[in-house]
Structure formats: C-alpha cells, structure tokens
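User: I need a structural model of AsnC family transcriptional regulator from Halosimplex carlsbadense 2-9-1 for a docking pre-check later this week. Nothing fancy, just the predicted structure tokens so I can convert them on my end. Input:
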Amino acid sequence: MSAESTEERILSVLEEDAQASYAEIADRVEVSKPTVRKYIQRLEDEEVIVGYSADVDPKKLPGQSIALVGMDVDSGRYVEAVRELKEIAAIEKLYTSSGDHMLMAEVRGPDGDAVGDVIESTIKDIEGVTAAHPSFLQERLK
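Assistant: Understood. Predicted structure tokens for AsnC family transcriptional regulator:
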C-alpha cells in the first residue's frame, strides 16, 4: 500500500472518531501502532491536523445557539478583515469558501439574541465586511 493511502485511512478514522486510540486506528487501518503514531505526529507537525474536537448537536446544548454566517468582504480589506474576524471570541471556526460567500464562520452564543448581536455589532462593524448572512443551526441530522 502507498503512504498516501495509509495517511488517508488514518485521517478518515480520526475524522470519524477523534478519540480513537493508536491501537484502534492501527487495527482499523491495518498498520502498527508506531506507524500510526509516526503519521499522526507528521500530520500535526505539518498542521494538516490542526486540532481535535467533539461534534455536538446544537439542539441539545442548553443555553447555546450556533449560526453559520456567510460573509462577503471587500477585496482591498480582505487580509485585515480576516485578522479582525479571527480575534472575535464568539467565532469558533472561520473558513474561506468558494460558494455564495467568501468566508463562512461558526458563531456561538448563549442564545440567538447574543449571536445576532455579535453579527450586527461586531462582524458587520469590521471595515471591509460588506455582508453577513446567518443561518441558525436547529438540529443535527447526521
């Protein structure tokens, strides 16, 4: 098997279960634990793996609201706007996008009003942000 296929299989296991042990990954990928450890260390060093997290069902989070916010940014202010967006504590994740919007952010707050306030009073106030369109998550289906 090629190194690439081993790497992809290890990443696939981690994406499915970020808490899988080296032994579990090794069994599923059919390689040794030291091989798994080596690949994971390299992927972390190369920042392919940037962290481990738990997937949550937003409907089951008491006192928390989550919105995915599509944003458009003036190209002349893009770098500065992204820097400012990265500093907003309520933004859990920030992505570039090739879809309807240039950027997508996961914004969390204690309730919908708090998330709305972050969008209206913080995100939209950043110079260069020309639009912010929230979609509030209701229920995780998969």
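Before docking, keep this in mind: The chain has a mean pLDDT of 89.
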